[in-house]
């Protein structure tokens, strides 16, 4: 992991924002900048130094994972926050940037009281860096997608009518670990029949045999990075209207993917899919954004929606997931993970998605 380069990029961004030092508290951001995989550890960065402040639980882990950085392990008395404040005060700073979108008001107030210099807003600076993935990050996402596809194919081939949504969801998550992943990126969504119209349906005891179609949205976390895919499975003859909305959603997704390239406007990409769904008469049944960035977290910037502004850059990895959700019938969402390139894009996921490929004969 090229954490040294990431720290230098972060320092460059701080310089650009005219910020002399920063306190990074979000565990995901600390891990991104340093390679540390634990929690309850905070990073103080200025133009010269980078220091991790933690407690004795992580002393050995910090030495193993971040041996090239300074470590400050708090003593037996006091809190990590007080040790952190004492260290920051010793730096004689005129100000220090923090992540108020991460800190609770209580912790923010504690820091403001104990740190003698003013606290300023870091403005999601680390998240800004995380949008552009380096080669190692893209490789990790590819691996997470590969595992995701393997577990789906396995679950698909073993699908039985007496299984419940909960059974299928847990099987997917278990197989991820058996294939060597860290675990699931988020709780799997399995929606059978009308429950597929719930975009974030929780797993239930509804049986697969109760309807001829189901929606599965699942993601793998591997080496700290995630994948996020959605596919429809049909197990018998589906209503004609359902087949129609499937075709509309698939065409909307393909139209949006064609718009993806470095320099593309995020709202334009969203509009390509949304206008197609609207022209087919289903606009009011597509109520969420077209997609979002993925990386160390399932939802990162940039995002695709009618109101979210942004410009794509090479190295971003995004989902493209239009959907139509008819409450009494069911829903269709088709989702792939896409790498933005200078001249276009690469769809990283490879599971087939034509309507014919959705059919599965139950065991």
What do you see in this structure?
Helix 9 runs antiparallel to helix 10 (266-279). The protein folds into two domains: 3-130, Creatine Amidinohydrolase, Chain A, domain 1 (3-Layer(aba) Sandwich), CATH 3.40.350.10; 135-358, Creatine Amidinohydrolase. It has ten helices and 19 strands. The chain has helices at 3-16, 27-34, 59-65, 80-90, 105-114, 125-130, 135-157, 165-178, 240-258, 266-279; strands at residues 21-24, 42-46, 50-54, 70-73, 96-98, 119-121, 183-184, 189-192, 213-218, 220-222, 225-226, 229-234, 291-293, 300-304, 317-320, 323-326, 330-333, 336-340, 345-347. The strands form seven sheets. It has a four-stranded mixed beta sheet with strand order 1-2-3-4, sandwiched between helices. A three-stranded antiparallel beta sheet has the order 7-10-11. The chain is 35% helix and 21% strand. Strand 5 (96-98), helix 5 and strand 6 form a beta-alpha-beta unit. The model has no long low-confidence stretch (mean pLDDT 96).
